[in-house]
Amino acid sequence: MSDRTRIYIVMGVSGAGKTSVGRQLARRLNVEFIEGDEFHPPENVDKMRNGVPLTDRDRDPWLWALRDKIDDVRQQGNSAVVACSALKAKYREILEPGEATVTWIFLDPERSLLQQRLAQRQGHFMTARLLESQFEALEKPQTAIVENARGAIAEIVESILQKL
Q: Which CATH architecture has domain 6-163?
């Protein structure tokens, strides 16, 4: 395993910009991008598409599948940017491998901006109806780079890079 193995996890509630920021950040860092939503089992996607909030039990297989992917990246001696809600501290504990250096990046825009973004979103299973349940589950991280995520994606990524 390389000393340069680093995992950057871009986290926040739905609509915060995790995927957009994560993809561009990965490009700028020249590392792999991992979309956490791709690791949800079909049952979770169906629930969210129907406006049903996920429980901790629903999230468990998703978190461990994503952790397995993070472990694979680490074992190859590589780094990656991961986009994942990681709403609770116990979820972050699952995702954070002890041997790797993890940098948490918390995107924290105002609710009104999130509601606007979710209302405009097309083709995503996460609906605006679930935003409140995400805020209820959210435990803001104690140690993270925090971005208000209001500006353009390039500006947000530049701000993160300066803080790294």
A: 3-Layer(aba) Sandwich (3.40)
